[in-house]
Amino acid sequence: MSLRYVTTNEGKIREALSYLDDDVTQLDYDYAEPQADELEPIAAAGAREAYRVAGEPVIVDDAGLFIEGLDGFPGPYSAYVEETLGVDRVAQIARDGDATRASFRCVLAYCDGDGFEATPEPVDRGERRGQDLEASERDRAVTDDTVAEGETPVKLFVGSVPGQIVEPRGAGGFGYDPVFEHQGETFAEMDAEAKNAISHRGRALARFADWYADR
Q: Which position among 23, 61, 62, 210 bears the catalytic label?
């Protein structure tokens, strides 16, 4: 069966194909996003719901900007905050508060209806929909025999890029790219190839691709 990437962004499909040899096709499906302070339960809930609709293996990603000095704000609410408060205002708050250390994070969630062998990546077993995964759940692997009957397990893969919040620079990218600097360049100053090579989504996809090759 084809691997379905749940997204409305065709650029994500192209990026996924650069990491995966298998056929990856787009699934345009608007799943419900639970409220949570971390990305993991949001991506897991989306993958679980999308799998039930598609009946095929699916991957879902959720991403956000986490500013350390602002307790991870805007985090999972990055898109909403961009629309309401604005990127420049968020960056100004961080700079004014000397809270410029930040990271872009992406969680990729995979679901095919089956259980998983033990690996370093965590498994969400659907016990805390809409809530944060406990730290112990993130840090340990879950084997097939620990998945209770009736639950739909989801495998999670995390990618992160450290950086800092700066004055806006660059004409490329989108969202928070102009104010996020990594190794001397903002994401908006990088071309698409350079950005994809070090992006948080790319790093999550690379981890997933390594695991998926043996699935």
A: 62
